[in-house]
Amino acid sequence: MPLGFSSGLCWGAADFFGGVQSRRLPALTVAFWSQVAGALALAVALAVLGVRPAGAGVAWGLAAGVGSGIALVLFYRGLAEGTMSVVAPISACGAIVPVAAALIAGDRPGAIAGVGVLAAIAGVMLVSRAPNPPRARTVRTGGSGPVLAMALGSALGFGLFYVFVDAGTAVPGGSPLWVIAGARASSLLVLSMIALVGWRSGLRWPGRRIGPVALVGLADTGANLLFAYAATTGNLAVVGVLGSLYPVATVVLARWLLGERLSGGQNAGVVLALTGVGLLAAA
C-alpha cells in the first residue's frame, strides 16, 4: 500500500508546517488559505485532464469535506497551543473510525486489529495526563483539557473523512479527483461559515506568509489525492490507518526542528498510540 503510506507522510509534513504557521497566524487563517491554494491546484488539474464528475462521488466528497474542514481547524489550533508530538498521535486515532465502519459493514477486524484499537486508546489516556513540571527544553503542554478535546475532535473528523472518501471512490465512475474536489469545496464552505459565525477575527490575509501557507495546502491536497487513489484499490481499514501514520513525520520534524521533549508517561503514550496505528495497518 505505497499510496496509503505516502499519503501519511505528505499529511505529516503538511501538518507540521501548518502547525508552525499556526503559531504565527490564526489557525483559521492557515486552514482557510491553505485550502484555497489546494482548491486552485485541483481546479487546474481538472481543467487540464478533463475528467467528468460522478454526482454520487462528488456528494460523498462534499460530506467528507465537512468533517475534514472542522477537523483541520481543531488540529491546527491544537498544534499551535499544545505539543505537536502529543496532538498529532492523538489525532491519528481517527484510524479507529474506518475500522469501526468496516465492523458495522460486517467486516470484523481480527485479533491484531483489536489489540491495535486498545493500544491506541491506552496511548490517548497516557498522553492526556498532565506532564511533570517542565524541564529546561520542554515546550508547551499537550495534556490540558482544551488541547486534548481539539485533538480528539480532529481525530473524529479525519476518521469520517477516510470513510466518506472511500465511499465516494467506490461509486461507479467516481473519480478520486472529483471526490477530493467536492471535499475541498465543502471544507472551504465550512471554514467560511466558522469565520462568519464566530471566528471572524481569526480569518485574515496571511500577507508575506501566503507562500508557506499555500505550500501547506498543496501538500495537504496531494496527500488527499494519494489517499483517494489508494482507497480505490485497498481495504478501507488498512488504507485508513496507513494514512493515519502521518504523526510519524510530524513527530520527527517537531523533535528535529523544534527540540520538543515530553514527559516519560507522554512518551509512552505516543509510542502506544503509534503502535496501535501500526498494528491496525498490519491487521
Strand content: under 5%
Number of strands: 0
Which spans have pLDDT < 50 for at least 5 consecutive residues? Answer: 133-143
Structural class: mainly alpha
Outline type? globular
Radius of gyration: 18 Å
Helix content: over 70%
Question: What gap, in angstroms, lies between the N and C termini?
Answer: 13 Å
| Average pLDDT for all residues | 83
Largest sheet: none
Order of helices and strands: HHHHHHHHHHHH
SS summary, helix count: 12
What does this structure look like?
- By secondary structure, the chain is mainly alpha-helical.
- It has 12 helices and no strands.
- The chain has helices at about 1-20, 25-50, 55-80, 85-90, 95-105, 110-125, 145-170, 175-195, 210-230, 235-245, 245-260, 265-280.
- Helix 3 (about 55-80) crosses helix 8 (about 175-195) and helix 4 (about 85-90) crosses helix 7.
- It is globular.
- The chain starts with a helix and ends with a helix.
- Residues about 135-145 have low confidence and may be disordered.
In short:
The chain has helices at 2-21, 27-49, 55-81, 84-91, 96-104, 111-127, 145-170, 176-197, 210-231, 236-243, 246-258, 264-282. It is an all-alpha fold.
What's the helix and strand layout?
Layout: H1 2-21, H2 27-49, H3 55-81, H4 84-91, H5 96-104, H6 111-127, H7 145-170, H8 176-197, H9 210-231, H10 236-243, H11 246-258, H12 264-282
Helix pairs in contact: 1-3, 1-9, 1-10, 1-11, 2-3, 2-8, 2-9, 3-4, 3-7, 3-8, 4-7, 4-11, 4-12, 5-7, 5-10, 6-12, 7-9, 8-9, 10-12
